[in-house]
Amino acid sequence: MAEAVSLAHALELDVAFDLVVKLRKPHAGLLFGKGKLEELAGILSAEDIQLVLIDGPVSPIQQRNLEKHWGVKVLDRTGLILEIFGERARTREGVLQVDLAALEYQKSRLVRSWTHLERQRGTGGGAGGTVGGSGESQLESDRRAIDDAIVRLRKQLIKVEKTRTLHRAARAKVPYPIVALVGYTNAGKSTLFNTLTGAEVMAEDMLFATLDPTMREVELPEGQKIILSDTVGFISELPTQLVAAFKATLEEVLDADLILHVRDISHPETEAQAADVREILTTLGITERAQEHLIEVWNKIDLLDDAAQETALNQANRDDAVLAVSATTGQGMDALLAGIESALEDPMITEVVRLAYAEGRRRAWLFSQNVVDSEEQDELGFLVTVTWTTKQAAQFAKHA
Ligand SMILES: Nc1nc2c(ncn2[C@@H]2O[C@H](COP(=O)(O)OP(=O)(O)OP(=O)(O)O)[C@@H](O)[C@H]2O)c(=O)[nH]1
Ligand SMILES: [Mg+2]
After folding, report:
1. Are 323 and 297 in contact (CB under 8 A)?
2. Which residues surround ligand 2, an ion (CB under 5 A)?
3. What is the pLDDT of residue 136?
4. Which end of the chain has fewer CB atoms at under 10 Å, N or C?
5. Rounded to two decimals, what is the model's pTM?
6. For the chain, what percentages of helix, strand and coil (3-state, to nearest 5) are there?
7. What's the 299 CA to ligand 1 centre distance in angstroms?
8. 96-129, pLDDT tens digit by residue?
9. Is 203's C-beta closer than 6 angstroms to any atom of ligand 1?
10. What pLDDT does 155 receive?
């Protein structure tokens, strides 16, 4: 509920009241049972409420019926998140991506309603038949209009993405590894980005403060330079339309040499948030092995009490893949930079290894190391695509 309220605040809405409603069985047409429906109607009119946010999925029919019944606007979680993204989008690509996601959402919610049927053209007797004449219903023409708009947007997006691919290619010529910050919204990615780069990206106690990716150069203690990237945060039940629309942007994350998973370790739901982030990374095509290679940055340790802070620091001491920091006080920044440096010394690389049919044992070794992405065969033997560290590559070479 706290998160739902934060989402509302992200749109600068005044939250008049919040309520957890237990639904034993959602009503198909109205979501709520009769009693609850009237109880809520009473509160809505007493508080003069204009908008009801339902933090979960609401079917198009339920939404329409509830709006009619209560005389207010109803938004579900996906609708709300799309609104926030719509307000935040700044770059041309961001705007196009959000528009596309919103249209996909709208399309999935077109329902046959009475008003639509009444406006049906080309059917019905008499003079009605001359209007439009196609016999096409309003619903069908709405759907077609949305489809047309989607096609237009996709074309524009492809153009913008091409430009960005060029930029990316230019960056690839710079021999600096890319380090990407990912994490749940409000985890402190932008604050960390600012602390590490001296930049002034907007960092606020607000969900989805960042939408468009930002990159900056950072020098590590031993002089190695990297490019650090800050990007949009994740949230549980991130609308699939948004994941799809932002795929191009997020794919840059997949391309990073190292991913830092920034977590708000002081948040009561930190474990669930981390699980959501991992799930979204998987959806984006980040393999399990690549995820094992990422570094977890446990942020906001300044907010933990002494005992919890000690536990976090101990865990970070034991585990190379965990670093405990505070982006606001600067605690742990040196260790973080050093951690990035050593992780980059042994980066994951993907390559194709050729093996003759006689090299069954070497092939078995690859599988035992869990580094195989895929495999093909030709008349000479196996072509094994592997993702591994340089250390593993060297071990494999020794097995020759
Ligand atoms: N106490 C404390 N607060 C922090 C720390 N890091 C970030 N914050 C606060 O957490 C809030 C969110 O920080 P952001 O940096 O905007 O978070 P983000 O991950 O970029 O969020 P999105 O862009 O919305 O995904 C801000 O109010 C920060 O001041 C920290 O280490 N300690
Ligand atoms: Mg941010």
Report:
1. yes
2. 189-190, 209-210
3. 66
4. C
5. 0.81
6. 50, 20, 35
7. 9
8. 988 999 999 888 887 655 444 444 444 444 444 3
9. yes
10. 93
